Amino acid sequence: MIIRHHYSMIATMLLAQVLAGTNLIAKPFRFVALPDTQIYTEDYRPGDGRKNVTDPSGTFRYFTDQTQWVAENADSLDIKMVVHLGDIVNTAQNITQWERAKEAMDVIDRADIPYGMALGNHDVEGNKDSVDYSRNYRNYFGPQLYNDRHWYGGSSPSGESNYQLIEHEGTGFIFLNIALNSDQDETNWADQVLSSHRDRLAIITTHKHLQDFRVGFARYGEKVKSGILRGITMDNRGSRSQEFYDGLIQRHANIIMVLSGHFDADFHRNDGFNGADLPIYEVLADFQGSRNGGDGYLKIFEVDLEAGTIKASTYSPSLDRERTIIDNFVESIDFIYSQAISRIPENVQGISEKLVNAALRDDVVKGVNVIENHPVYQKESAYYETLLADSFGGAVPQSVGSVADWEGFWIIGYASDRDKPLSFGTSARSSRYTMHFDFERYITEPIRSKKSHQRLWSEFLDDLEGIKRRHQDLKIFLTPPFIDLR
Questions:
Q1: Angle at Cα 447 formed by Cα 442 and Cα 448, nearest 5°?
Q2: What start-end ranges are recorded for coiled-coil regions in this protein (predicted)?
Q3: Alpha carbon 207 to its chain's center
Q4: Which CA distances in Å does 18 have to 11, 25, 434?
Q5: Domain boundary residue among 305, 323, 341?
Q6: What is the pLDDT of residues 348-374, one digit of tens each?
Q7: How many domains does the chain divide into?
């Protein structure tokens, strides 16, 4: 039940009392997202060539820890759905890995919890023209396994996409899992499915949609809107995520979220629009590059229809620990050092160095040691030092130095407020955040035939910022506020 907003305050209070007396107020429910499990199904052990695998029992147990935790807590937490973000296995031809994945997911299946599996690039063989492109995915998680499930909506003709239907207190949801880089036939099928379930709130999962270099994030094929890489178009490498956004997401009014994995990162954005010009949240979660292939971290989404919110958090059943923004940052040190900088275009690298130096100016940080004085870091400093060492295979290279040496990247990539770079509130890369929705509008608002003034204004501001970025003197541009994490 979604309470309409046109009630007066008094009427709403009276209605709430009546509903509370008859237990009709919709309590929150949860759904869980399992990020890429490819390193888990590979079952690496220390010495197998994966530098940050430290668990002598292997990595597969993190997958079964996840699904066992979901099954054991489904009733108490009211977990109504599980979505796998793709890259179920590491090698599509390896039957042992598929058997492990099936063993882990069978725990959820036996608990009769609805779930859907997205197709990732590691789950396919060869290319799209191959006859057996997705044979093992179809064999182990194809539609033939779910036709008797009351929550299973169906699959695309290829068997590579699927959807599930759930209900909560009279409100319907559709979870649509679409194969990565979906061709037009697959997109047309998804379009028809969404059109025929217009009265349900839609949550989309597709494996490859967003990427993040910690200094700039975007959809594949989209120009970066913030950070060092602002104005640079992310290499799509054959990905159709921007076309997917333009050709499917912006054609439907009931879509509220798009989930994805593939790129090792954890961030969210809310600057996109659906077909009714209502805001959508796009979420990326992938921890495969973390210690032990992810240390078992999964995403929990708490949906509160009455409050109009979805609260996201990140938790590891194996560690019994909630992930923090400091975890994301510490693990990013390795990522930035070993990958991101070398992949930033040469013409941007000089700017990036100046931007980091500007972030560390005395008039900005005022001599404060940002990371080591962060209360979360202080609480678990030994844990984070170990995590950093594990990221480099046991010892931090001298050239990397301490966490404090990377404060510039904290400020430009993790600080939450462009005007207050030392602020530690919710940022785009936080592991815990709240998303706000006027849920009822998503199933009642008509689809716009043209872009709204809201969207046009947003795009104009982005263009204006791009012009300023190109034509202003760098020194002026770097004067706080110098970063935009919208």
A1: 125
A2: none
A3: 10
A4: 11, 9, 28
A5: 323
A6: 666 666 666 666 666 666 666 778 888
A7: 2
Let me know whether 210 and 234 are in one domain.
yes
Report field, pTM of the whole predicted structure over 0.70: yes
Strands (E), 200-277: 201-206, 210-212, 217-219, 255-260, 265-273
- Of 289, 323, 357, which residue sits at a domain end? 323
- Measured CA distances, 17 to 1, 25, 304, 306 (Å): 15, 9, 18, 14
3-state secondary structure of 32: strand
The pairing of beta strand 265-273 with beta strand 279-286: antiparallel
Q: In terms of DSSP bridges, do strands 171-178 and 162-168 run parallel, antiparallel, or are they unpaired? A: antiparallel
Q: Is the same domain home to 266 and 337? A: no
Q: Whole-angstrom Cα distance, residue 470 to residue 467?
A: 5
CA distances 258 to 23, 47, 274, Å, are 32, 37, 11
Residues in the chain, how many?
486
CA–CA gap between residue 434 and residue 469 (Å, rounded): 30
Cα 420 to the chain's mean position, in Å? Answer: 25
**Distant-in-sequence, close-in-space partners of 329: CB < 8 Å, separation ≥ 6:** 371, 406, 409, 410, 413, 414, 429
Q: Report which of 161, 155, 131, 158 is spatially closest to residue 143, judged by C-alpha positions.
A: 155
Residue with tokens 């077909």: 275
Tokens (6 digits) for 138: 């179809």
Segment 276-314, tens digit of pLDDT: 999 999 999 999 999 999 999 999 999 999 999 999 999
Range of the domain at 338: 326-426+467-477
Same domain, 313 and 359: no
